[in-house]
Structure formats: structure tokens, C-alpha cells
Design a protein that fits this description.
By secondary structure, the protein is α/β, with parallel strands linked by helices. The protein has a single domain, classed as 3-Layer(aba) Sandwich (Rossmann fold), CATH 3.40.50.720. The chain contains seven helices and seven strands, in the order E-H-E-H-E-H-E-H-E-H-H-E-H-E. Strands 3-2-1-4-5-6-7 form a seven-stranded parallel sheet, with helices on both faces. Strand 1, helix 1 and strand 2 form a beta-alpha-beta unit. Helix 1 crosses helix 7, helix 3 runs parallel beside helix 4 and helix 4 runs parallel beside helix 6. The longest helix is centred in the middle third of the chain and has 30 residues. It is globular and about 45 Å long. The protein binds nicotinamide-adenine-dinucleotide.
């Protein structure tokens, strides 16, 4: 069920954190990987190749619609996409330059997902099969633990887009779902002051604990799932 041999899976935001863990697990299950990030993914790619994986990487900003479309179009094969790249500044909406930050957060977390998913969905719908996993957040489900409202709005948008894309793609054999992580030990939360208080399991997630459900949604195990948002948050939100 979880065998991904011969499948090509694209992961955005793959240079670190949840994206890198997702890539490692996918590689272990036999997937061919297409990794992108605005940071360099080549160190991760070299490690995965040393273990026998086939990996393509590229570095570009997900806000660049043209580059994102070109990257998707250039791939000879595409069976699944994990739209994971994200950005979460821990600021205050009273900050003087907050409106500029708002635009950046929406452009990366919401429009960046659209920049990748528009060509990827067209491609997978026309071939009649595919899986898409959008990485949302507990912030988009219940307002988050400490996130600022730009991020909450962007991730709420990702959840709405999951439903919209799922309805569009399901009749064409493509499953679109989301994972909504709670606080996870990655670079994103450093400096946030988030701790385990208020998290029923008593700790933050390890990145692989978010990556595993993402990988499941890339697999045939999720063949009848469409428009689902998996809460992976240690019990913070039960929806
Ligand atoms: N860490 C958490 O607590 C948490 C909680 C809920 C949701 N998430 C979501 O999980 C996803 C992965 O985050 P993470 O925790 O691994 O953080 P991370 O910072 O380790 O990884 C995010 C990746 O996205 C890349 N990225 C950021 N902006 C980009 C851009 N403009 N173009 C291309 N790549 C860009 C970064 O370079 C980075 O490699 C994000 O969508 C994040 O919002 C994280």
C-alpha cells in the first residue's frame, strides 16, 4: 500500500524541516524525488542519492509563478506533489511594516501553493491520476498557538483551497488532501517561544511525525480520500 516504487513525487520547501523529512521517507519507499526550495537542497539530495534514490533539485522562490510552472512542466513524470514551502514570521500586527509582511506571508504560503498546484493539477488531471498534499497548519484550523493573523489567514486559505482543488480534481482521478500540523521542532518555531504548555501530548512534534501522514496521503492508501484535512497536532485541535 505504501510502496512508492516508480512514482515521481515533487516536494516544495524540501531543504529542511518537514519537507526534508518527507523527502527522506518518500525515498525510503522507493519514490523518485523532485525537490525544490528557495534554499539549496543539494546536501539532502546527495545523502538520498548515496542511499540509492533518484533525485532532481532546483532552487527558486515559490512566489515566482513562471519558474514554478516551468519546473512542473519540465518534469517528465509527476505522480504526487507535496506543497510544503512556508514562512511564519513571529511578529505583531501593530508593527509599522506589518502590511508588507502580510503580503509576503500570503504570497508564499497561499499564492505559492497555487503557483505550484495550478500546473501540477492540470498535469495530473490530464493523465488521470495523481495525489496532492497541501501542508496547512493548526493555525488555519483554530487560530494557532502564537501565530500572527497573516499566517492564520494564509493557512485558512490553504485549507479552503484544499477543498476547492479536491472537488475540481477528484472526477479526474486526482486526490487532493491536506495535513494541518501543530507545533513542530523545525527552524520555523525557533524564536517563537512556543512550548508544550497547552499541547495534550506534552511535547512538540518531531518533523517525521508530520512527514509520515503526508507520505500516507501520497500513497494508494489514500485512494478514497479527497478534501480531507488531517489534524496532526498532539491533540490541540480535534475537528
Ligand atoms: N514547524 C511548525 O510548527 C509548523 C506548524 C504548522 C505548519 N507548518 C508548515 O509546515 C511547512 C514546513 O515548515 P517547517 O516547519 O518544515 O519549516 P522550515 O522553515 O524548516 O521549512 C520551510 C521551507 O520552506 C522554504 N521556503 C520558505 N519560503 C520559500 C519561498 N518563498 N520559496 C521557496 N521555498 C520557501 C524554506 O526555505 C524552508 O526550507 C510549512 O508550510 C509550515 O507553514 C509548520
Amino acid at each position: 500500500m505504501l510502496n512508492l516504487k516508480g512514482k515521481t513525487v515533487m516536494v516544495t520547501g524540501a531543504a529542511g524541516g518537514i519537507g526534508a523529512e518527507t523527502a527522506r521517507i518518500l525515498a525510503g519507499l522507493g519514490a523518485r524525488l523532485v525537490l525544490c526550495d528557495r534554499a539549496d537542497c543539494s546536501a539532502l539530495a546527495d545523502t538520498l542519492r548515496a542511499d540509492g534514490a533518484e533525485v532532481i533539485t532546483d532552487a527558486f522562490d515559490i512566489r515566482d509563478r513562471h519558474r514554478a510552472e516551468q519546473f512542473v512542466t519540465d518534469q517528465p513524470r509527476l505522480d504526487a506533489v507535496v506543497a510544503n514551502a512556508g514562512f511564519c514570521p513571529w511578529d505583531d500586527w501593530h508593527d509599522p511594516d506589518w502590511d508588507d509582511t502580510f503580503d509576503d506571508v500570503i504570497d508564499i504560503n497561499l499564492k505559492g501553493v497555487i503557483n505550484v498546484m495550478r500546473p501540477a493539477l492540470d498535469r495530473m488531471m490530464s493523465q488521470g491520476h495523481g495525489k496532492a498534499v497541501l501542508v496547512a497548519s493548526v493555525a488555519g484550523r483554530m487560530g494557532g498557538l502564537k501565530a500572527s493573523p497573516h499566517y492564520v489567514a494564509a493557512k485558512g486559505g490553504v485549507i479552503s483551497m484544499t477543498r476547492w482543488m479536491a472537488g475540481k480534481a477528484a472526477p479526474h482521478g486526482v486526490n487532493v488532501n491536506a495535513v494541518a500540523p501543530g507545533a513542530t521542532e523545525t527552524g520555523m518555531v525557533s524564536g517563537s517561544g512556543i512550548d508544550a504548555v497547552g499541547i495534550p501530548v506534552g511535547r512538540l512534534a518531531a518533523p517525521e511525525e508530520i512527514a509520515r501522514p503526508i507520505v500516507f496521503l501520497c500513497s494508494d492508501g489514500a485512494s478514497y480520500m479527497s478534501g480531507a484535512v488531517l489534524d496532526v497536532n498532539g491533540g490541540v485541535h480535534v475537528g
